[in-house]
């Protein structure tokens, strides 16, 4: 078993490249976001030293503290991938280079208003629930067009694409249904980024067009303790 962050990162990168080739895609079309929630700044630094630049965080307080601790890494890119409350938007804007979880009109407005006030243009993804009632997060497919329109109306926001966290499926065929659905919606809205796929299913996501995969446990190990 590979024991180090650098070693596991290399394995994940090799698997991404292999999945890309199998799908007839160039490996550099897929960006790896290393999900570091509940992992210490030291582990993030290890991954950074092994060449990783994109990191995903879920919890605002932990996110901001970690980003501060790692402020000496100038070209690190932080992605907000957790549920975002409107009253925490200002904190996230200080550190995130992309917000992947814009799942409601109210949040798009708040984020847009604050970004504009700070003369910023923040890259965002609209998070959609393509798994129906089983999925816990994301805007509904029915409301997707309205949400996309609202994001596009905000001068402080730049819509890059869509993101989804499908219900946990063991069968690749079943999870593929959700990934295909997200890709169809991205085509419909004419956006290019597709953030989908986690440790257990990123290869399936790449087969179905993911441009970003969000991988935590396969890089940092289980999240049962902060280390
Ligand atoms: C935790 C998390 C991930 C990473 O999950 P792993 O199974 O550890 O790879 C990806 N995306 C989101 C939105 C998450 O919350």
- Overall pLDDT: 95
What binds here, in terms of ligands, is: pyridoxal-5'-phosphate
Q: How many extended strands?
A: 9
The general outline is globular
Element order: H for helix, E for strand:
HEHEHEHEHEEHEHEHEH
Structural class: alpha/beta
Q: How large is the share of residues in beta strands?
A: 15-25%
Write a compact overview of the structure shown.
42% of the residues lie in helices and 19% in strands. It is of the alpha/beta class and 227 residues long.
Structure overview:
- Strands 1, 2, 3, 4, 5, 6, 7, 8 and 9 form a nine-stranded parallel beta sheet that branches.
- The two termini are 19 Å apart.
- The chain is globular.
- The protein is an alpha/beta fold.
- Helix 3 packs parallel to helix 4 (89-95) and helix 5 packs parallel to helix 6.
- 42% of the residues lie in helices and 19% in strands.
- The protein has nine helices and nine strands.
- Bound molecules: pyridoxal-5'-phosphate.
Lay out the secondary structure.
Layout: H1 5-22, E1 31-35, H2 41-49, E2 54-57, H3 60-69, E3 77-80, H4 89-95, E4 98-102, H5 105-117, E5 122-129, E6 139-140, H6 144-153, E7 157-163, H7 172-189, E8 193-195, H8 202-207, E9 212-215, H9 217-220
Residues 35, 37, 58, 81, 165, 198-199, 214-218 line the site of pyridoxal-5'-phosphate.
């Amino acid at each position: 078993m590979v024991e180090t962050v650098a070693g596991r990162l290399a394995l994940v990168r090799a698997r991404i490249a292999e999945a890309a080739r199998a799908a007839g895609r160039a490996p550099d079309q897929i960006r790896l976001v290393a999900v570091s929630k509940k992992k210490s700044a030291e582990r993030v630094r290890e991954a950074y030293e092994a060449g990783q630049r994109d990191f995903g965080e879920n919890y605002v307080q932990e996110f901001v503290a970690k980003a501060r601790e790692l402020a000496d890494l100038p070209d690190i890119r932080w992605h907000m991938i957790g549920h975002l409350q409107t009253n925490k938007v200002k904190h996230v804007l200080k550190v995130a280079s992309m917000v992947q979880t814009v799942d409601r009109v109210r949040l798009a407005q708040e984020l847009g208003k604050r970004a504009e006030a700070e003369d910023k243009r923040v890259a965002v993804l609209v998070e959609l629930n393509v798994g129906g009632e089983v999925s816990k997060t994301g805007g509904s497919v029915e409301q997707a067009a309205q949400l996309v329109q609202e994001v596009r109306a905000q001068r402080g926001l730049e819509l890059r694409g869509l993101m989804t966290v499908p219900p946990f499926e063991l069968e690749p065929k079943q999870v593929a249904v959700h990934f295909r659905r997200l890709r169809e919606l991205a085509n419909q809205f004419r956006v290019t980024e597709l953030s989908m796929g986690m440790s257990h299913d990123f290869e399936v996501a790449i087969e179905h067009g993911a441009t970003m995969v969000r991988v935590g446990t396969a890089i940092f190990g289980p999240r049962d303790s902060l280390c």
